[in-house]
Amino acid sequence: MGKKILIVGAGLSGLTAAAYLSKKGYQVTIIEGSSKIGGRAKSFHYKGYRFDLGASMILMKDVFEKVFSELGTKLEKELNLIDCNPIYRLIYSDNKELDIPHGPNKMSEILEKHEKGSGGKYLNFIKNKAILYNLFVNKIMNNHYKNHLQLIKAILKEKNRWSFVKSISWSLNDEICKIVKNPRLRIALMFNVMYCGTSPVKAPAMLGVLDYAEQKYGLQYSKGGIGEISKALWRISKKNNCKIYFNTKVKKVLSSEGKVSGVELMNGTIMNADKVIYSAPLANAVQKKIIPKKWISKNPLKMKMSCSSINLYLGINKTLKNIKPHTLFMVDDFYDNLKDIFDNYKLSDKFCFYIHSVSQIDKSALPKNNKKGQTIVVLAPTPNLKHKITSEEIKKIEKTIYKRISNYIGENFEKLIVAKKIITPMQWEKDSHLYKGAILGATANTFQMLTFRPNITTKIENLYLTGSDIYFGAGMPLALACGRTASQLIINE
Length: 493
Ligand SMILES: Cc1cc2nc3c(=O)[nH]c(=O)nc-3n(C[C@H](O)[C@H](O)[C@H](O)COP(=O)(O)OP(=O)(O)OC[C@H]3O[C@@H](n4cnc5c(N)ncnc54)[C@H](O)[C@@H]3O)c2cc1C
Hints:
5-stranded parallel sheet; 19 strands
């Protein structure tokens, strides 16, 4: 058994694989291109304020619990989780608000109040999604099916197989339209699919499992920043003698006699290994010829990529109580906005955006000398770089966001800003190595899920892949699941 493992990338999927393998006694070395661990799930400080670069909220807490427990510890011991309640605040174009509570019965009451009969239909929907969620988490996420046939065979053995088949052949939009008529409530039940980088209109009914996960487990924030998750995984690996090289970029994955044998670094150094786990974004690796595309089960460059985003990281000198930790500014032409982002690759005049504001629930995000302020991270989804966004367009988006928030809070929002940093689609592409600046990798539509995506195993021996473009798809719990599965495949060999 080869014991020397190289892991490229210290994002959550790479760190999870490192934690499992080092705990089992493998000699693990991580090569990280930047100066920090965490990848898209890292926190950073700017002018005293702490921000989360990408991922902000923990969904599917049960997956985190399982991973930490298998690693010999407990989630609550490693992280201090804060519940986010309401789960979201939606603010519509006329500034009317809808708070999404934690708990299916409470949500059903809200729906019933707006539309008679919708509450019961919603509870049935959640019941059905619970079956699918359990099938997904307990069966699919615990195994790696290399092809459609293996996956179908496994699903056909399940009692709830027809629910699964229906869920990938039906659209979520059709299902939600049968529960409620009001377009605003429909949006409330399905915008969360954008977490997978998918247009809710195009999403398969399967992705309604996110509604179930939100209602069952709620949404949490990790006190001290989302970067605490990667720190916890790194603590386990470090204890088990895992090594890490920072500011070290891999130029090429190397092979010898038809097997992967190590990597070449940008400075020309060769590092040999028995196995390599490539956990950095795959589409970028293929585009930059770090990995030849013939080694991978599916060419990631031919996949439809998710949206990009303009992120504003703002420190303001006032607390705006109406802006909840998780707030969404919606537009009535939501469907048109989605079409522009995902299909037309153009910017909409009216667009939705999301705010992640944690300082109300975690004061440690504020500078030591300014506990009266607030941190606001705005994420405005944009088309990926199939649309070549200009600096004038970015400026216009920024101004539109300030105007919209000002209209809601009743004062000039821009005047409250004391710290500001912007990340554009071009920066996501360059600094986070995301092909076309697609923040969530390849989109998760019916023909780009599971065995339709590149496998964790490859066509060449000793190379494994993890991350958002692979098998499970985007999101922190799926990154953990992917790193876990890759390590299990190596351990079980
Ligand atoms: C804006 C945004 C918001 C998000 N919100 C959420 C959320 O709220 N909840 C959620 O669950 N998920 C969210 N996600 C998704 C989640 O952050 C990602 O799916 C997950 O963190 C990806 O982890 P990863 O290990 O696959 O890859 P990454 O985090 O991309 O890590 C890859 C690592 O590889 C390194 N690397 C790249 N190329 C090389 C190279 N050649 N050599 C060496 N190192 C290299 C990078 O520096 C990086 O550290 C969000 C993502 C973004 C961008």
